[in-house]
Amino acid sequence: MLQKDPCQKQACEIQKCLQANNYMESKCQAVIQELRKCCARHPKGRSLVCSGFEKEEEEKLALKPTSK
Fold this sequence. Notes:
The protein is mainly α. The protein contains three helices and no strands. Keywords: Disulfide bond, Mitochondrion. Belongs to the CMC4 family.
């Protein structure tokens, strides 16, 4: 049986917020932060809706200069 995505509710809240605020991301920072918190609570790969944040983190780490 397919399990429900643990962060689906937060992802839906972001969509509602964006639609209500004419897609101005700056007006939805609180709900975006809630999704980030949800993603942080679950193992990597557990939530499909978190995959964008996981990819973002990987890219940040790849660009981070290494210390000598």
